[in-house]
Write a structure and sequence with these properties.
single chain; mainly beta; six-stranded antiparallel sheet; five-stranded antiparallel sheet; about 0% helix
Length: about 160
Amino acid sequence: MGSPAGRIVYAPIAGVSMPSDATADIWSFDLNATTHRARLLGFEVTSDSIVAALTTLSLGFATGAGSGGNATGGAQNADDLQTTTPLGILRTADTTVGGDGGRIMAWQWEQLGPIGHIWTPEMAPVCLAGEGFSLQQLTADAWVGSGWVCWEEFEV
């Protein structure tokens, strides 16, 4: 799976405006390096919704970056002694989704509470080298959200 020298990366999501689009990436990340793979460790998203809006979400592997949204900054190594820059590039609110490498999980999310998942090390999904993951919104619903994504980057 990964070496003990894997780099843990945290990426914040703050005030992302999701469009009323039936297929949009809430977040996605692309490793942008064919020498590394990533293990998705966890994520959480909260919504500003004040009504019980039910939204369908799908988590999967991403074979390329989407467009129409924003590249976010602020991804940070968990160990501040590491001076290398994280390889993963986090994007949010892409209205044209990235390449689909297969879906892993799906949820019906009532937006009054957070949605998220933290995997045990044995269950954490691992993407192919140079690819990544995406959380897609499959229901047309506009909202503003925040949260985080955490992954481990390790050499192939």
